[in-house]
Write a structure and sequence with these properties.
mainly alpha; two-stranded antiparallel sheet; 5 helices
Length: 156
Amino acid sequence: MALARPKNIRLELRSNIALANFPFVKRRKVEVLLVRTVRYYRAIRQSRQKRPSQARTPPLRSALLPIKARLRGRQDDFLLRAYVFSALFRAWMIGFDEYPRVNNKGGSATQFVIFADFILHRLGIGKVEDHLEEFRSYRKKLLLNSGFKVVRGKVI
C-alpha cells in the first residue's frame, strides 16, 4: 500500500529536510531555495509540453511574429537538470557548511545522495548517482575554463 503524500510541495520538502537532519536555524532558507527550484522546474517542463496549436493565437494576421519551430521528440533537459542539481548542492552547502559527497556507484549511499534522491524522484529524474557525477564533472569543467582551481569539488 502506498504511503500518503502531501499535496503541497512545501510540506514534502519540509519533511525531507527534517529527515536529512538540517540544522534548525538554516531549514527555512533551504526550504525556500528548494521550493522555488521545484516550482521553476515544473513550470518549465509544463511549458515545453504545450503544442503550438494549444497556444493562443493573436487576433490579427499581421501581428504574427516569426517563431522557431521546436524539434520533434524529447526535449534536452540537461541544463534544466543542472539547475536542479546546482540548487541541491547549494542547499547542502548552506545547511551543513560542507561540500556534499557523492558515493561511488554501487557503494553505500551518503546522506546527500539520500536527500537528493527523494527530491529527484518527485521530479521524475532517475539514475541519481550518474546524474550527480555528470553534474560535478560539468561544474568542474566550467570552473577550470573560467580560471579557477578545483580540488575535490572545492574552489581554490
